[in-house]
Design goal:
By secondary structure, the protein is mainly alpha-helical. The protein has a domain of about 70 residues. Helix content is about 50%, strand content about 0%. The protein is extended.
Protein backbone atom coordinates (compact mmCIF):
# COMPACT_ATOMS: atom_id res chain seq x y z
CA UNK A 1 0.00 0.00 0.00
CA UNK A 2 1.40 3.35 -1.00
CA UNK A 3 1.19 6.31 1.25
CA UNK A 4 0.14 9.66 -0.15
CA UNK A 5 3.35 11.44 0.71
CA UNK A 6 5.67 9.26 -1.44
CA UNK A 7 6.18 11.30 -4.63
CA UNK A 8 7.80 8.46 -6.55
CA UNK A 9 4.86 6.16 -6.13
CA UNK A 10 2.15 8.74 -6.70
CA UNK A 11 3.31 9.89 -10.13
CA UNK A 12 2.42 8.11 -13.30
CA UNK A 13 5.42 6.87 -15.32
CA UNK A 14 6.25 9.11 -18.27
CA UNK A 15 5.90 7.73 -21.76
CA UNK A 16 9.52 8.43 -22.77
CA UNK A 17 11.51 7.44 -19.75
CA UNK A 18 15.27 7.60 -19.42
CA UNK A 19 15.60 3.88 -19.95
CA UNK A 20 13.63 4.06 -23.20
CA UNK A 21 15.96 6.74 -24.57
CA UNK A 22 19.07 4.62 -24.11
CA UNK A 23 20.55 3.34 -27.34
CA UNK A 24 21.70 -0.22 -27.65
CA UNK A 25 25.43 -0.66 -27.10
CA UNK A 26 27.76 -1.27 -30.00
CA UNK A 27 28.61 -4.79 -30.91
CA UNK A 28 30.92 -6.33 -28.36
CA UNK A 29 34.52 -6.45 -29.50
CA UNK A 30 35.91 -9.79 -30.45
CA UNK A 31 38.87 -11.09 -28.52
CA UNK A 32 42.17 -10.13 -30.17
CA UNK A 33 43.58 -12.52 -32.70
CA UNK A 34 47.10 -13.94 -32.49
CA UNK A 35 48.66 -11.11 -34.52
CA UNK A 36 47.06 -8.41 -32.35
CA UNK A 37 48.21 -10.23 -29.22
CA UNK A 38 51.79 -10.34 -30.50
CA UNK A 39 51.78 -6.64 -31.35
CA UNK A 40 50.37 -5.83 -27.90
CA UNK A 41 53.11 -7.87 -26.25
CA UNK A 42 55.88 -6.11 -28.23
CA UNK A 43 55.62 -3.17 -25.89
CA UNK A 44 57.23 -5.38 -23.27
CA UNK A 45 60.13 -6.34 -25.57
CA UNK A 46 62.25 -3.50 -24.29
CA UNK A 47 65.33 -3.67 -22.12
CA UNK A 48 64.83 -3.55 -18.40
CA UNK A 49 66.24 -0.39 -16.80
CA UNK A 50 69.84 -1.12 -15.87
CA UNK A 51 70.09 -4.12 -18.19
CA UNK A 52 72.97 -2.52 -20.06
CA UNK A 53 74.95 -2.56 -16.83
CA UNK A 54 74.61 -6.33 -16.48
CA UNK A 55 75.63 -7.33 -20.01
CA UNK A 56 79.06 -8.40 -21.17
CA UNK A 57 81.37 -5.41 -21.54
CA UNK A 58 82.44 -4.85 -25.11
CA UNK A 59 79.64 -6.85 -26.70
CA UNK A 60 78.08 -3.84 -28.47
CA UNK A 61 79.80 -2.48 -31.59
CA UNK A 62 80.08 1.02 -30.11
CA UNK A 63 81.97 -0.39 -27.11
CA UNK A 64 84.77 -1.58 -29.39
CA UNK A 65 87.52 0.64 -30.80
CA UNK A 66 86.16 2.57 -33.81
CA UNK A 67 86.80 1.25 -37.29
CA UNK A 68 87.81 4.68 -38.60
CA UNK A 69 90.10 6.98 -36.66
CA UNK A 70 91.14 9.25 -39.53
CA UNK A 71 88.70 11.86 -40.83
CA UNK A 72 89.80 11.39 -44.45
CA UNK A 73 89.25 7.63 -44.31
CA UNK A 74 85.83 8.07 -42.71
CA UNK A 75 84.76 10.64 -45.30
CA UNK A 76 85.86 8.26 -48.06
CA UNK A 77 83.68 5.57 -46.46
CA UNK A 78 80.76 8.02 -46.19
CA UNK A 79 81.15 9.06 -49.84
CA UNK A 80 81.08 5.44 -50.96
CA UNK A 81 78.08 4.54 -48.80
CA UNK A 82 76.07 7.64 -49.78
CA UNK A 83 76.92 7.17 -53.46
CA UNK A 84 74.98 3.89 -53.60
CA UNK A 85 71.93 4.31 -55.85
CA UNK A 86 69.23 3.45 -53.30
CA UNK A 87 70.76 5.69 -50.62
CA UNK A 88 71.35 8.54 -53.04
CA UNK A 89 67.78 8.30 -54.38
CA UNK A 90 66.27 8.57 -50.89
CA UNK A 91 68.67 11.34 -49.94
CA UNK A 92 67.81 13.39 -53.03
CA UNK A 93 64.09 12.93 -52.36
CA UNK A 94 64.49 14.34 -48.86
CA UNK A 95 66.61 17.24 -50.07
CA UNK A 96 64.08 17.98 -52.81
CA UNK A 97 61.29 17.98 -50.20
CA UNK A 98 63.12 20.78 -48.39
CA UNK A 99 64.64 18.86 -45.49
CA UNK A 100 67.65 20.87 -44.29
CA UNK A 101 71.02 19.18 -44.78
CA UNK A 102 72.05 19.72 -41.16
CA UNK A 103 68.99 17.69 -40.05
CA UNK A 104 70.15 14.77 -42.21
CA UNK A 105 73.69 14.66 -40.88
CA UNK A 106 72.83 13.95 -37.23
CA UNK A 107 71.06 10.60 -37.84
CA UNK A 108 73.75 9.50 -40.31
CA UNK A 109 76.51 10.19 -37.82
CA UNK A 110 74.54 8.66 -34.94
CA UNK A 111 74.14 5.45 -36.92
CA UNK A 112 77.85 5.44 -37.73
CA UNK A 113 78.63 5.76 -34.02
CA UNK A 114 76.19 3.02 -33.01
CA UNK A 115 77.71 0.67 -35.60
CA UNK A 116 81.18 1.32 -34.20
CA UNK A 117 82.46 3.08 -37.32
CA UNK A 118 83.57 6.24 -35.48
CA UNK A 119 83.80 7.63 -31.99
CA UNK A 120 81.83 10.75 -30.95
CA UNK A 121 84.88 13.01 -31.38
CA UNK A 122 85.42 12.02 -35.00
CA UNK A 123 81.69 12.28 -35.65
CA UNK A 124 81.77 15.89 -34.47
CA UNK A 125 84.74 16.59 -36.72
CA UNK A 126 82.94 14.97 -39.66
CA UNK A 127 79.78 17.06 -39.31
CA UNK A 128 80.84 19.98 -41.49
CA UNK A 129 82.44 17.88 -44.27
CA UNK A 130 79.35 15.66 -44.32
CA UNK A 131 77.07 18.70 -44.66
CA UNK A 132 79.21 19.85 -47.57
CA UNK A 133 79.10 16.38 -49.14
CA UNK A 134 75.31 16.09 -48.86
CA UNK A 135 74.77 19.63 -50.14
CA UNK A 136 77.09 18.87 -53.06
CA UNK A 137 75.01 15.83 -54.00
CA UNK A 138 71.89 17.98 -53.99
CA UNK A 139 73.45 20.81 -56.02
CA UNK A 140 74.77 18.32 -58.57
CA UNK A 141 71.23 16.96 -58.97
CA UNK A 142 69.89 20.48 -59.54
CA UNK A 143 68.10 20.79 -56.20
CA UNK A 144 67.89 24.08 -54.36
CA UNK A 145 69.41 22.73 -51.14
CA UNK A 146 68.44 24.12 -47.73
CA UNK A 147 71.53 23.90 -45.56
CA UNK A 148 70.04 25.18 -42.31
CA UNK A 149 66.46 26.03 -41.49
CA UNK A 150 66.04 29.54 -40.17
CA UNK A 151 65.15 29.62 -36.52
CA UNK A 152 62.08 31.77 -37.03
CA UNK A 153 59.24 31.02 -34.68
CA UNK A 154 57.18 33.95 -35.89
CA UNK A 155 57.54 36.01 -32.71
CA UNK A 156 58.88 39.51 -32.78
CA UNK A 157 61.05 40.00 -29.68
CA UNK A 158 60.89 43.81 -29.81
CA UNK A 159 57.53 44.22 -28.07
CA UNK A 160 58.70 41.84 -25.35
CA UNK A 161 61.87 43.85 -24.85
CA UNK A 162 59.84 47.07 -24.62
CA UNK A 163 57.53 45.51 -22.05
CA UNK A 164 60.53 44.44 -19.96
CA UNK A 165 61.97 47.96 -20.16
CA UNK A 166 58.65 49.39 -18.93
CA UNK A 167 58.52 46.89 -16.07
CA UNK A 168 62.10 47.67 -15.16
CA UNK A 169 61.30 51.38 -15.00
CA UNK A 170 58.31 50.67 -12.75
CA UNK A 171 60.42 48.52 -10.47
CA UNK A 172 63.20 51.09 -10.07
CA UNK A 173 62.78 53.31 -7.03
CA UNK A 174 61.99 56.91 -7.72
CA UNK A 175 64.85 59.29 -7.12
CA UNK A 176 64.51 61.33 -3.97
CA UNK A 177 65.13 65.05 -4.01
CA UNK A 178 68.29 66.27 -2.32
CA UNK A 179 66.38 68.26 0.31
CA UNK A 180 65.06 65.18 2.03
CA UNK A 181 67.53 63.86 4.51
CA UNK A 182 66.51 60.48 5.79
CA UNK A 183 69.21 60.30 8.42
CA UNK A 184 69.41 63.50 10.34
CA UNK A 185 72.17 64.48 12.66
CA UNK A 186 71.45 65.76 16.05
CA UNK A 187 73.01 69.05 16.65
Amino acid sequence: MAFGFDPLLDEEPEEDSFVDKLKPAEKPKLPPNAMEQKSAMRQFDQPIPGQSLTGEMGSAPYEQPPKYTDLQEFMTYMFESISRNEVQRDLLRMLDAGVPVNMLTAPILMQAMSEGKVNPDLAMLATQPLVTLLAGFGKKAGINVVVRKKEDDGLDPRPIREAFKDKRKEAEPAELPDEINLVSRRT
